[in-house]
Design goal:
Length: 422
């Protein structure tokens, strides 16, 4: 009888697995049709925005000697170079930063590629439509940079549930994230409701939004994964993580200076580097004071907190103040990883795999608050921060509820359930 019972359980499990596979194939076909539809939307005969952009490029062919066009081309080329630096941050930096999870490297890197590939076209398509104050030209380096910023916010967000989602769920999370990001971006920056709000490099709009969206996704999920494998790292995974961290550190000045006025690019780059230096030094000191020995995860993550925090004021402050902001951000981030993270997990009843609250959430809020000393508009600055956090968390919670319908990952923090692993 026991043997018969075991056979029945095995058959039932196989039937359930086959049913899941069928559902996933249907979802994949639906997603493929959606992506084909997205490409069709960007055909000039359908999208007036695209048609206008192509016509403008063609009309400039015989006018290359005009000074205004020459200057525009030079500035766009310089921005293009920074856009490639940002892509390096998104794919190599974020990708390898998230490889710290042992046995999850394939998944971390693939998820990085997938969500970037979702975010950039989706942001561009949505911003192709709408009235004045909302739409952006599709054939534009500025629009590409803004789309990359959206992708950065999404990569931050997936860090919270990293290792506990299937690949399909990352795609769905991206599809739901981008409209929420655009809504908040328009509300805070373009609607006119928060005039005087300062956030040049995205401490709030990108980093804090991504962090609290991700935390919203993982709320009340702790019991769902109770008894499953825990997140682990080893020497090799941590070395790859450090590689990602150093790539992010290297290109961060391009991120913060991507859309600033040309005359402020050098100041912005210097301020960003000084903030990163301050955070790195503070991270070393605080990880050693609090832990007794150096924790490589602190070095890989908290050392970047200066880049997060300086974002709001990157083009408006001086190197000295920038370094102080970086020191404060690095210290806050280490305290987050060592002390605050366990308390936050209990509060939201969810596990923040990458510690995005410690690297992006709290340092982002710190940077946004620091801008008050420049703008003098405490009410505007703080209200924009509160609105951003609320929109991010609520939309994240809704997203977490939606992707939960796709069932849970079979083997958390492991590639074997979705990849051919040698």
């Amino acid at each position: 009888m026991a043997k018969l019972s075991t056979i029945k359980e095995t058959r039932a499990r196989d039937v359930r697995y086959e049913a899941k596979t069928t559902v996933n194939k249907g979802l994949l076909i639906l997603l493929m049709l959606l992506f084909i539809g997205a490409a069709l939307v960007l055909i000039p005969s359908i999208n007036h925005n695209v048609s206008t952009g192509i016509s403008a490029i063609n009309s400039q062919g015989g006018q290359v000697n005009q000074d205004s066009i020459q200057y525009s081309t030079i500035f766009d080329t310089l921005k293009y170079e920074r856009s490639i630096h940002i892509l390096a941050m998104l794919l190599v930096g974020f990708g390898f930063l998230m490889v710290f999870v042992r046995h999850h490297g394939y998944s971390s890197l693939t998820a990085t590629l997938l969500v970037v590939s979702v975010a950039i076209p989706m942001y561009t398509i949505i911003k192709s439509f709408g009235g004045e104050g909302f739409s952006k030209p599709t054939i534009s380096i500025d629009t590409l940079l803004c789309a990359e910023f959206a992708a950065a916010g999404l990569l931050i967000a997936i860090g919270a549930p990293l290792g506990r989602l299937k690949m399909d769920q990352y795609i769905i999370m991206g599809i739901l994230f981008v409209p929420a990001y655009i809504l908040n971006e328009w509300l805070i920056l373009d609607s006119g409701m928060f005039k005087g709000f300062l956030d040049t490099g995205g401490s709030i709009i990108i980093h804090a939004f991504g962090a609290y969206f991700g935390l919203g996704v993982i709320t009340n999920t702790l019991s769902k994964f109770k008894g499953d494998a825990v997140c682990e790292s080893n020497i090799n995974s941590n070395l790859f993580c450090m590689l990602g961290s150093m790539v992010l550190w290297l290109f961060w000045p391009s991120f913060t200076s991507a859309i600033v006025a040309p005359e402020r690019v050098v100041l912005t780059a210097i301020n960003t580097i000084f903030a990163l230096c301050g955070a790195t030094l503070a991270t070393y000191i605080f990880t050693k004071i609090i832990r007794g020995k150096i924790e490589i995860a602190d070095i890989a993550n908290a050392a970047l907190a200066g880049g997060v925090a300086i974002g709001s004021t990157c083009d408006m402050t001086t190197p000295g103040y920038a370094m102080l902001i970086g020191i404060a951000a690095g210290a806050l981030s280490v305290i987050g990883y060592t002390t605050i993270a366990p308390q936050l997990e209990k509060l939201i009843r969810g596990t923040d795999t990458c510690g995005i609250n410690n690297l992006h959430g709290m340092p982002g809020l710190l940077g946004g608050a620091a801008a008050i000393f420049i703008t003098g508009k405490a009410g505007t600055q703080l209200s924009a921060i509160v609105v951003t956090v609320c929109i991010a968390f609520i939309c994240g919670k809704i997203t977490g509820t939606v992707i939960a319908f796709l069932s849970k990952k079979e083997l958390p923090y492991n590639d074997k359930d979705e990849y051919i692993v040698a």
